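Hi U.,

Before I forget, here's the chain from the pilot set. I'm dumping it here mostly so it's searchable later in email.
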Amino acid sequence: MRRTSNEILMRRYLLGDLPQEERVRFEGEYLADAELFEELASTENDLVDSYVRGELTGGEGRRFELEYFRSPQRREKVEFARALNQVSTLEQQAGRSSLWNKIGSVFSVQHRMPQWALVAAAIVVLASGSWLMLQNQQLRTGLQQALAGQADLRREKDTLRQQIADIEGNPKDQILENQQGSEVSKLNPPMGSEVTLRLTPGIARGAGDQQKVLFLPPSASSVHLQLILDQDEYKIYEAVLLTPEREEVSRGKALQSRSIRGRPVVSWRFPAHSIRSGDYIVQLTGRTAIGSQENVGSYSFRVLRR
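Structure:
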């Protein structure tokens, strides 16, 4: 079958065979164009169907397996397509007719069936057809969401790679704020031993949230967190570093706020060896005049050790 240049481009994208710059450009195009997105979804359906029917060439088949079998969601899509293909094959072998032929066959035997049975049979057949159409629409919606999520993850991965490259090329900077407002820790010069990260209140809860990243080199001896305050209402603060499972890693007491770039900030230093690669949450509280602790805010970040 002769394919258009657009379909060839989409198949190469789905099989992970496009250069990075071309892949990023194409992702921006189909996310901004609903018709192109629908065409991409249709092309992926055809690609998966071709694989389960054994129609992909050796090179395409290998790239398909490398790209699809490492993702649980994509493996489920392949298994679903394989099951549909098996059902379709069985139906063809049995010589089953179309939906409307089934309706016609029901009414063709009316002389042997009571009227209520004919009506009930017709309702069952029509309901089955409606259910199949609804399932098909839900599958299309799920596919669109999966493709959008995949594009987001790839862009995040490319962003992190660029941030690592920037860190290696500019070691004297301490904090980088990119166009999206995210912040990534910058390494001090080789003689330094402290890594600084500035955090704003809030916890990243999903793939679309911008996660703050702390890069830790082997030479780092301490971590300096700058916790930005919405309001500076207390003289003394206390910070607790927790894992996502709420296990305490470190605690800072008697912390005080100061102004950085016109904003109140609580500074906290703790040993770098106390944390590993992974996600962390900082719970900040303030001490009232009577000595009780009140919640101020939560902060989240991710640690990547190099």
